[in-house]
Write a structure and sequence with these properties.
12 helices; alpha/beta; globular; about 325 residues; about 15% strand; four-stranded parallel β-sheet; TIM Barrel
Amino acid sequence: MVETCMNRPTSGARPDVLISECGPRDGLQSIDAIMATADKMRWIDALHAGGLREIEVCSFVPARLLPQMADAAEIVRHAIELPGLTVLALAPNLRGAEAALEAGAHKITIPVSASEAHSLANVRKTRNQMIDEVGRIVDLRNARAPHVGIEANISVAFGCSIQGIVPENDVIWLARELSAAGADETGLSDTTGYGNPAQTTRLFGQLRAAIGERAGAAHMHNTRGLGLANCFAAYEAGVRVFDSSLCGLGGCPYAPGASGNVVTEDLVFMFESMGISTGIDLGKLNLARAIVTESLPGVPVYGMVPEAGLPKGFVQESRNV
């Protein structure tokens, strides 16, 4: 089983929280522009140079559906050469998982919707069919590459822009089923930005009570301005791994109105300003941000810290970066 996500890292040399960058996958899948393969590689290199140690670099889906991901295998093969980097790839089905394993991904992330309506729109399978698919992917992993991690994360866990309210009991039932199917980790995603801090604290508490050390990351969106507040609520509930996207790029193409991934730069600043180490150099993130804006001219980018700058006198402790 891969390392658990809810617990604080035990080694004094490691950061207090792990920021898992999802921009090269979640960010690029939601825009029409296609970033050149060479620019994707430069972006991933710059993220790694800035201290990111877990990056979701692509998704293995048909190029006719997401032409932005047509170079997925090439991107994985490049990223796995970066020292100390855990390379994630999204795979919505067994075929995608086979391709991710063949390319050499260190971890496969599988999106499983808490809402039946979103599941049918996103992956054309029911929730129960996706539970079965996770089991098949786990069997494949066990047979071919037992060292590879599998996280089955629950999309639209806080509400669905197609279905509306998602009962919390449904979320926890699904988490238990995914754990029983063999997923190493299951985190919660606020795909549509419906969540609030009280709900976040409550739901992550229920998740941990249900599946213990297999409880995974918080993937929050800032669609309604509560992304950072929800991340802090998740931290207070014991979460220590957080997904975010440089420049705030990202959103699910099959969830209407699902914009606004939490901005990596803002999330890092929030934690670092509180004395919670991330291991990420805010200054070096600006270099990665420049690659994005140069490579995707005209694509809107976000972030309060990049706009306002760091407060006068703010210095990151050297042990963090």
